[in-house]
């Protein structure tokens, strides 16, 4: 790193109920120990993050290091994407799924070393556009359904901490499991990323077909203007693999291909959804009956009921929305050895 510049470190004081500030302190000490010039940006509440991000980027740092979780990273994206200023993810959040996707170490000293010694690589992000024109950026995965309702529940819980809070909140949400009527319009047309399941709806079976080759065999796809309509429990859309503290719901996602991976779990019922828990944890669910895996550059999402879309663990707004991949618009600091695509 050029010693003439500086590293901006943005700290979310509320991350992990305040425990993230201690993590950030260890990152700062390591950076200073290694001779870096550091400017710290820390507010008193999460709402300060966008303002501080704007100030930090305007100062022209060599790197913007963010000490916080995926929600904190999402809050800085509008001020960072397209600027060429690299983002360093140094941890301190609850889920840390963006770091997990790219092999960024969880320890503060190791994460600080990546800031100084790591590679720089362009990766994809995503945007969610509401019908009112509001645009929200996200870094990992957006969801609407069982997973977003579980996320809402998890955000209200104070204990336990870490991944255990995700697990407990998820199982509590299962007790009131709901089915939603999803309507998806994909552009370009739907492309299967795994074997098609026997649980396809009549709408899909009767749709006009064109052939597109996947890794296994030719599979059917529909035209862009013909929606997929299907009852389901869970919908996840993103360009990375993990959400909920390490669950690979989009196990084939590539953060540099300019496409969104989509997993939709149909209305399989509580017992079969519980049965999918272990395959989802292992990333082995895409071939299971009742699970659809699609890929597109953009998807419009509609559903009945009062569904709110979440992204990076934070509420975005009610459906309908349009989710769009933003191709390689974020420069990310990655480990030189072992960083994932």
Concise account of the structure shown:
By secondary structure, the chain is of the alpha+beta class. The chain has two domains: 7-117, Rossmann fold (3-Layer(aba) Sandwich); 135-327, Tumour Suppressor Smad4, CATH 2.60.200.
Report on this structure.
By secondary structure, the protein is α+β, with helices and mostly antiparallel strands. The chain has two domains: 7-117, Probable inorganic polyphosphate/atp-NAD kinase, domain 1 (Rossmann fold, 3-Layer(aba) Sandwich); 135-327, Tumour Suppressor Smad4, CATH 2.60.200.40. It has helices spanning 19-33, 49-58, 70-80, 97-101, 108-117, 146-156, 163-174, 202-205, 270-275, 277-282, and strands at 7-11, 38-42, 63-68, 87-92, 119-130, 135-138, 141-143, 180-187, 191-192, 210-213, 218-221, 228-238, 260-266, 291-296, 298-303, 308-311, 314-318, 321-334. The strands form three sheets. Strands 5, 6, 7, 8, 9, 12, 13, 14, 15, 16, 17 and 18 form a twelve-stranded antiparallel sheet that branches. It is globular. It starts with 6 loop residues before the first strand and ends in a 7-residue tail after the last strand.
């Amino acid at each position: 790193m050029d010693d003439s510049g500086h590293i901006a470190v943005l700290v979310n004081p509320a991350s992990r109920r305040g425990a993230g500030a201690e993590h950030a302190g260890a990152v700062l000490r390591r950076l200073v120990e290694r001779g870096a010039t550091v400017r710290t940006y820390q507010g008193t509440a999460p709402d300060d993050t966008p303002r501080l991000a704007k100030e930090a980027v305007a100062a022209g740092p060599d790197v913007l290091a963010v000490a916080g979780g995926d929600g904190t990273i999402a809050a800085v994206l509008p001020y960072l994407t397209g600027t060429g200023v690299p983002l360093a993810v140094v941890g301190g959040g609850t889920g840390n799924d963006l770091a997990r996707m790219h092999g960024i170490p969880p320890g503060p000293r190791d994460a600080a070393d990546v800031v100084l010694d790591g590679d720089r690589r362009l990766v994809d992000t995503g945007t969610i556009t509401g019908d009112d024109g509001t645009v929200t950026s996200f870094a990992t995965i957006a969801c609407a359904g069982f997973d977003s309702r579980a996320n809402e529940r998890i955000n209200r819980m104070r204990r336990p901490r870490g991944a255990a809070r995700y697990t407990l909140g998820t199982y509590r949400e299962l007790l009131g499991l709901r089915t939603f009527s999803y309507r998806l319009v994909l552009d370009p047309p739907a492309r299967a990323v795994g074997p098609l399941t026997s649980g396809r709806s009549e709408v899909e079976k009767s749709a006009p077909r064109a052939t597109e080759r996947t890794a296994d065999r030719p599979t059917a796809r529909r035209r862009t203007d013909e929606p997929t309509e299907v009852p389901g429990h869970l919908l996840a859309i993103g360009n990375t693999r993990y959400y909920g503290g390490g669950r690979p719901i989009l196990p084939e996602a590539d953060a540099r291909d300019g496409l969104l991976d989509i997993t939709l779990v149909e209305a399989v019922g509580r017992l079969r959804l519980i049965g999918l828990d272990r395959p989802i944890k292992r990333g082995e669910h895409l071939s299971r009956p009742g699970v659809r895996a699609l890929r597109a550059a953009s998807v419009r999402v509609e559903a009945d009921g009062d569904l709110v879309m979440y992204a990076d663990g934070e509420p975005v707004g009610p459906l309908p929305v349009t989710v769009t991949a933003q191709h390689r618009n974020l420069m990310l600091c990655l480990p030189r050895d072992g960083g994932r695509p």
